[in-house]
Amino acid sequence: MRPGGPAADDNGMRLLARSPERRVGRSRDAAEPGSTTTVPATAPQRTGQAQSAAPAIIELARVEKIYHSAGGRRGGRGVGFPALSGVDLAIAAGEMVAITGPSGSGKTTIINLIAGIDRPTAGTVTVSGSRLDQMTEEMLAVWRGRTIGIVFQFFQLMPTLTAMENATLPLDLARLGPPRERKVRASHHLATVGLGDRGDRLPLELSGGEQQRVAIARAMACEPPILLGDEPTGNLDTGLARDMFELLKGLNENGTTVVYVTHDQALAGMASRIVSVRDGLITGDSGRRP
User: In order of start, what are the domains of the chain with their CATH numbers?
Assistant: First the structure.
């Protein structure tokens, strides 16, 4: 994420640290108490798209987002900076979607809204049947822990924990299953990203590509239905970046909905759909490819 901007992400560790206890065996599709659920919408049809469309797992409707600078002399809200201006976006379950656009276009804000990190100034955000704009911070923390996995550009690994401990951390914070089962699950995810023999290494003992693999394993710890990435390969060279996206494609082929931001058109082309954003508006949408 863009350091210092209004949507800059200092949230990686906060999101992990705030994940409260989760009950084992609870249905992933169940809404949190007090949240407003909706019947899943249908992703819009586009030219060349199949006649039947899958239900939308992510839907932004008439979304606006305005960030405010620090208050003025009299303690006001300061100057408003519009990041999104009436965005409508529906993403079907199982899609792999790339969001592209220049810096400051609003693409990171879209990811933050889907993750429940930011709230819309106007409009509605519905993810996996839950209205995020109507949920409290506590409800969002519980919901996020079971619904969303996030891969950050700067890895956000805990430096004093091993790869295994980092991959186990979301399970520990959610108290999901007995400790032995958590380690087995984390070990499986590390093996999936090709690090089955590196679980005892600290982040500083791993390459940049290996650290990002650990971050992906951590994001999938609770096996969420949605994986988000904001420039997830921004600190990797071209070869490693493609390897990372092959991993994301593999997760997508196994049913995970993947949505990521990238400046790299070649990496965007690995998605089944490309959404272009500029000046807070969606200016292009390739739709789903056959």
Answer: 94-118+136-285 (3.40.50.300)
